[in-house]
Each structure stands twice: as structure tokens, then as C-alpha cells.
Amino acid sequence: MARAEVPGRPPGEVLVMGAGTIGCFVGGSLAAAGVPVTFVGRPRVLQGLAEHGLALTDLEGGTHRLPAASLRLSEQVPVGAMPSLVLLCVKSGATASAAAELAFALPAGTLVVSLQNGISNCASASRVGPTLQVLPGMVPYNVAEIGPGAFHRGTAGRLAAQDDAALRPWLPVFARAGVPLDLYPDLLPVQWGKLLLNLNNPVNALSGLPLRDELLQRGYRRCFAALIDEALGVLGSAGIAPAQVAAVPAQRLSAVLRLPDWLFRIVAARMLRIDAKARSSMADDLALGRRTEIDALSGEVVRLAQDQDLEAPRNARMFALLEEWPAQPRRWTARQLQDALGLS
User: pTM of the entire structure?
Assistant: First the structure.
């Protein structure tokens, strides 16, 4: 694993493909540190940035504000763009179309880092955009949109990506921007370690609660733990050992989640270092009527199980609940969700 040690000058310009919560926070942090950044995103987000500028806050009390006039905003990849680094931050369902647009508009060999949930986005982008140099990445923290042009990081962690010589010059730049990046020779265990944590996203989304409030209810945690246990069984069969991404190793996490509330507050104090603004991006998707990324989370577990001639019924059920939600929107109590997953 390589780590940034000293600040440095940006090796070039950055293009954020997908100016959502992660794209705006990471890209905005780089822009605040003096990196030229172009944000490509949906009209709704871009309008908020154009009217209000970009405001970034975090749970440690950090604040950055970039005036609207300083932001470079576009609904498509600008003609003639030649970024040295692209941060691919679109939702998983938009990976193919985003990669096709990047491959059409940018020079061959352009470096792209996928800062997306799930396991398969990098491979999907590479298939659609074979002229791009696409590397997998991982975002450990939660970012919430708390207002037009305002984004808040509610949890801690360090970005991660696959090690590559082309990415190493960027390490001091990310460190100086306050979004440090670690490089790994094999990112797959890290990606699976993060995916296990992300299995709480559908639980949180269906609960309708802020992240910390949901985690403080044992019933919801039991649902999260059941999804993790099922995924760990599938990973074990596939010979994949997930990396430790959270304060608690993945193999112990489900046991900690099942503790009584009073004991969980003590044992999981570091895990609960989440402020009141934090919520899952999947909850935001449901609130906005968008399709969620459940296919990149529970869907990945189900597909890996099928590859091993196994089943993952609880992750399959959670997949179905999220897919059905737009037709029958509702807030699920912890008891209702436990029953839906077959937990006694």
C-alpha cells in the first residue's frame, strides 16, 4: 500500500464525471486546494452549484466554500477536454453510458478512477471504453447533500484505489486537499470489505431514518448482520477474504451488530462516530424517486453466489424490496424488515 507523505502540485486537470454527493465532495476538495476541476452532472445538481456555489463541510468541523463563478460546470464532457485524471462518480446504472461518453470525447489512455459502489463498475467501464485507462477505487465515507450546492461528509476514512504508476503523482495532491488516497496492489479485497458495510444502505433506506439513528436500533442491525453473514459465506466459498475497512473486522462485525443496544453503544463507539446529518445515498435515491444501486450491492452477492452454485436468499429478498419500493413506497419498521428477511 502506497501513501501520500508530502504535498505537491497537481499533475494536470481533473474531470468529475457524475457531480453527485461523492463527485462534488472529492472534486470540490481538490478544487479548494487549487486543482482545476470540471464538474459534469445532472441539471438539478448543476443548477444548485450555479446558484449557490459549492459548500463542503465534514464531521471534524472542516469547511470549504467555492463561489459559483469559480466553478466549471457542464452537462456533458466539454469538447476538447484533456483532463489528466477523471473521477468516475456516476451511479452504477449509468456506468456504461458515462464510459461511452468519456471514451468518445477524451484522448486514448486517459486515466479514470472509478469511485463507485460495488465490484463490477471498473470492468464495465473498461468494456465500453477500451481506450480509457480505468482503475477501481473505493470511497469509505458517507457524504450527504444537505442543501443546494452543500455537501457534508458525515463519517471518516481514506480513499483507496488500485496501484498504478500513473496515479502515484496524484497522492500528495489528494493529501493536500484533505481527501487522502491510498493505493493497493489488489483492490478487490478492499472493495468487498466496503461492500459488506454498504449492505446497510438498503436497510437504512427502507428505515427512513438518519444513519446513526438506524444503527442504534438492534432490529435494523440484525437485518444488516444477516446480510453480512450471508455475503461472508459466499465470499468464503469463492476464496475471497475481505479487507478490514471499518473499525471492526468484517468477520466480527455481525456479532457486534447483534449486541443489545446498551452494549453496542459501548463496543461500537468508533463505528457510531457519525453525525446527525449522515444518511445513505440510497435513501436519497428513494426520496428523489430514482432507481437505487441495490444491484451493485446485494446484486453482487447474489451473482457471486450463483457463480458458486449457491443461493443468497436474504440479499435476493433485499434486492426485491428495493426494486419494488417505487410502486409501493413505505417506511419499514425494524420488525417488518426482520420478518421480510426471515429473521425470527
Answer: 0.91
How would DSSP label each residue in 46-89?
A: HHHHHHH-EEEEETT--EEEE-GGG-EEESSPPTT---SEEEE-
Alpha-carbon distances of 81 from 30, 38, 89, 112, 129, rounded to whole Å:
18, 9, 18, 14, 16
Compute how many other C-beta atoms are within 10 angstroms of the C-beta atom of residue 33.
18
170 closest CA partner among 15, 38, 14: 14
Three-state DSSP state, 55: strand
DSSP symbol at 155: S
**Cell numbers standing for residue 277:** 446529518
CA torsion through residues 326, 328, 331, 333, sign: negative
The pLDDT score that the predictor gives to residue 300 is: 97
User: At residue 169, does pLDDT exceed 50?
Assistant: yes
- Residue 20 clears pLDDT 50, i.e. is over it: yes
Q: State how far the Cα of 181 lies from the Cα of 229, in Å rounded to an integer.
A: 29
Q: What would the pLDDT profile of 105-134 be if each residue is shown by its tens digit?
A: 999 999 999 999 999 999 999 999 999 999
36, amino acid identity: P
